[in-house]
Amino acid sequence: MQEIRYLDSVYAGEGIWQRLNEHLELKKYGSIFILTDSNTAVHCLPYLTSKLPKKWNLRQLQIKAGESYKNIESCLQIWEELSSNLADRHSLLINLGGGVVTDLGGFVASTFKRGIDFINIPTSLLAMVDASIGGKNGVDLGVLKNQIGVINEPELVLMDIKFLDTLPPAHKVSGLAEMLKHGLIASESYFNRLLRSHDSSMWLDLIWESVEIKHKIVTEDRSEEGSRKFLNFGHTLGHAIESHYLDKADGEAILHGEAVAIGMILAAYISTRMRSLSEEKRDTIANGILEFFDKRRFSEKDIEAILGLLIYDKKNRGGKILFVLINDFGKPIWDCEVPDAVIRAAFNYYKNL
Amino acid sequence: MQEIRYLDSVYAGEGIWQRLNEHLELKKYGSIFILTDSNTAVHCLPYLTSKLPKKWNLRQLQIKAGESYKNIESCLQIWEELSSNLADRHSLLINLGGGVVTDLGGFVASTFKRGIDFINIPTSLLAMVDASIGGKNGVDLGVLKNQIGVINEPELVLMDIKFLDTLPPAHKVSGLAEMLKHGLIASESYFNRLLRSHDSSMWLDLIWESVEIKHKIVTEDRSEEGSRKFLNFGHTLGHAIESHYLDKADGEAILHGEAVAIGMILAAYISTRMRSLSEEKRDTIANGILEFFDKRRFSEKDIEAILGLLIYDKKNRGGKILFVLINDFGKPIWDCEVPDAVIRAAFNYYKNL
Fold first, then answer.
1. What angle do the packed helices A256-274 and A169-186 form, to 10 degrees?
2. Contact list, B90 vs chain A (CB under 8 Å)
3. Among A27, A148, A224, A320, which would you mutate to test the B interface (most chain B Cβ atoms within 10 Å of its Cβ)?
4. Which residues pair with B59 in a beta bridge?
5. Among B72, B113, B150, whose Cβ lies nearest the Cβ of A72?
6. Which CATH architecture group holds A5-166?
7. Interface contact flag, A83 B144, Cβ < 8 Å
8. What's the CA gap between A194 and A176, in Å, rounded?
9. Domains of chain A by residue range
10. Coil/strand/helix, residue A136
11. CA of B292 to nearest chain A CA: how many angstroms apart?
């Protein structure tokens, strides 16, 4: 018996490929499409096809790799290819890739002929511990992230940690930011274990703990009216930082996780200033995060541009900037209003770390 | 007390404006946007604003009028305008117009920041009796109709038959096709009343009967796996005919209702050939429909092009052409396979009427 663990439609462990095969046998899809980007087409698709019987006859669709292609133009390309390949409502789309592929592919499937089945196979750590849980999908609108999308659950989410071996180191570390966040908002011991254990035999357990933390939060608050907002810790500034660097030359581009890591350090500082997080824990958090993420320099001009982008953050109501802060590990509070001056001071704290 | 009738979120009668006002009071939206096309901006928006207290401060968004603008480019325009006007998840979009505006606006709202509230105010007969009921929304992909969309219910659908006075006669008649269809698949007496009664005092009752028939069918089968397919009567060929003329010069353009009217005559002929509809009833149906819709000439080339388009119809599974046919009034059957030769013979029957 192959090992498998699952939570609703999310599966991990050796048994996932058998589970996928059973699903395909059961559903008898008229046609099966597989979406990759230009990286996962090379590094992940051969492994996936080796795990499946040849009879399924997967047809490959491909977008260019990178956050800047997570847009409506890429959706149009895939919708048109599905259409010209006679995909119908009994077709399946398998999304094989990082968060860009699973977010975009989930949106394309949810809207093609008003919704076809889709399966997500996340290949990055970030997609496994974050994008795959909670049914959110969508694309960016210009520099504004995830402005267009729906909430719709995939048929299956299948996690194989072998895919992590295909990642460049920076991308692997990028996913750690969301795992650290889960520790910050839900469990101090999980945060500490993440700092300690870099043994690869621990990865599946550590990932699965993140899956469980996120799953618990999103199932308690599907519509994001309440506690789901906790997952936004570090993201208010993180998104603005990511947007700011999205249009820059390649050398300056920033990964989602790196932006969130900085956002969490800034949010920890703000939590000490405006809530009851101790200075000691603030510094533990900041230094823990900096074990994984290099520091980045922000000019005054960068900081002003980032503050300007904040107002577009979709979590904000009526133009107010609302943060998730923490009183302690596992004690988050949502909808905290923060003055610009405190945000500027947070950048100063970060600079002096 | 003003007269009002309702079914779930669909309201008709004089009391609808009071109902809208109550909804706005209750929901306290952060901002309210109203989408029109270039026609309804002139002919319908002043009437709507006269019915609402000035305090609501509606911000107007506008697309160009016509089916050819029911596409992703128009969605992008509206998403970007919503975004630059700082619409957030507590904003409301009111869609004021025919099926193009309500279908497109419903999709834009359902996908903006993963879904904001929307209200449909259909101004065409077609939108009242068809597009407004059942929660479907979406846009076209090239010549292929409604390929991109989701199923999502508006907060309210508000029907005021005064808007029908703003319609050109051809557009008014276009909506009749769907009403006649409801008679064909659900009620012979309703079909006959539609042929007889052209008295404007009857309109609200006739429209409401269509609302009830469609509502009953869609609530029994939300996901369109079964009986909802009956609503596709006349549409398999109707959609292909509509697609065929979508790219043509203005003089040849065809309204949805006219295309469906032709599709229903063809489907009635096929129902006699392949099912048990009597020749007498077939002719009653064809002549009844032709009381409202002028005949159109199809060249051999047109017919071949239309047959070629059929394969893309989203209702078809694995490339097979599946029709809804009827054994009699109120006795529809779905998923009937029809040979090309019988479809060609149907066009011949139509030509000789």
1. 30
2. 317-318
3. A148
4. B33
5. B72
6. 3-Layer(aba) Sandwich (3.40)
7. yes
8. 8
9. 5-166, 169-351
10. strand
11. 31
Rg (alpha carbons) of chain B, rounded to whole number = 20
Percent of chain B with pLDDT over 90: 75
A202: pLDDT confidence band, cut at 50, 70 and 90?
A: confident
| Chain B residues whose beta carbon lies within 8 Å of the beta carbon of residue A90 | 317-318
Please tell me the predicted confidence (pLDDT) of residue A171.
80
Q: Chain A interface, mutation test: which of B32, B112, B144, B148, most A Cβ atoms within 10 Å?
A: B148
- Partners of B29 on chain A (C-beta within 8 Å) are none
Q: CB neighbours of B29 closer than 8 A, spacing ≥ 6?
A: B90, B91, B92, B117
What ipTM was predicted for this assembly?
0.87
Task: Give ∠ CA A213-A215-A216 in degrees, rounded to 5.
Answer: 65
Closest CA to B87 of A244, A71, A32, A148: A148
d(C-alpha A87, C-alpha A31), whole Å: 7
Evaluate the CA torsion angle A76, A80, A81, A82 in order and state its sign.
positive
pLDDT number for residue A226: 79
Kindly compute the dihedral angle of the four CA atoms of residues A167, A169, A172, A175, in this order, to the nearest 10 degrees.
-140
What pLDDT, on a 0 to 100 scale, did the predictor assign at position B317? 52
Confidence at A160, pLDDT banded by 50, 70, 90 = very high
Interchain pair A90, B317: CB under 8 A: yes
Instruction: Give the mean model confidence (pLDDT) for residues A107-111.
Output: 98
Query: For a pLDDT cut of 70, what percent of chain B falls above it?
Result: 95
Please state the pTM of the whole predicted model: 0.89
**Which amino acid belongs to residue B67?**
E
**Residue B86: exposure state from Cβ atoms within 10 A (0-12, 13-18, ≥19):** middle
Poorest-confidence range of A210-219, B44-53, B222-231? B222-231
Size of interface A-B (CB pairs under 8 A): 95
Q: Where are the alpha helices (DSSP H) in chain A?
A: 16-27, 40-43, 45-50, 72-84, 99-111, 125-126, 169-186, 188-196, 203-220, 235-246, 256-274, 279-290, 300-310, 340-351
Interchain pair A147, B312: CB under 8 A: no
pLDDT for position A96: 98
CA distances to A10, A13, A174 from A203, rounded to whole Å, are 17, 11, 15
Q: Minimum mean pLDDT among A331-335, B86-90, B251-255: which range?
A: B251-255
Q: Are A138 and A177 in contact (CB under 8 A)?
A: no
The number of residues making up chain B comes to 353
d(CA A2, CA A339): 53
Q: Which residues of A touch B114 (CB under 8 A)?
A: 136, 138, 146, 149-151
For chain B, say whether A71 makes contact (Cβ under 8 Å).
Answer: no
Residue B114 has its nearest CB partner, among A115, A149, A319, at A149
Mean pLDDT of the region B244-260: 80
Under DSSP, the state recorded for A235 is H
Q: Tell me which residue has tokens 């048990």.
A: B276
pLDDT in the model for residue A318 = 58
Q: What is the pLDDT of residue A277?
A: 97
For CA atoms B214, B218, B220, B224, the dihedral sign is positive
Tokens read off for B307: 């047959």
Half-sphere exposure of B273 (CA within 13 A, CB side): 19
**Please, are residues A309 and A320 in contact by the beta-carbon 8 Å criterion?**
no
Provide the pLDDT for residue B91: 97
DSSP letter, residue A269: H
The arithmetic mean of pLDDT across residues A23-31, rounded, is 96
Q: Which CATH fold topology does B169-351 show?
A: Dehydroquinate synthase-like, alpha domain (1.20.1090)
Whether B14 shows a pLDDT value over 70: the answer reads yes
Indicate if A169-351 has the same CATH topology as A5-166.
no
Q: At residue B9, what is the residue type?
A: S
Does B73 contact chain A (CB < 8 Å)?
no
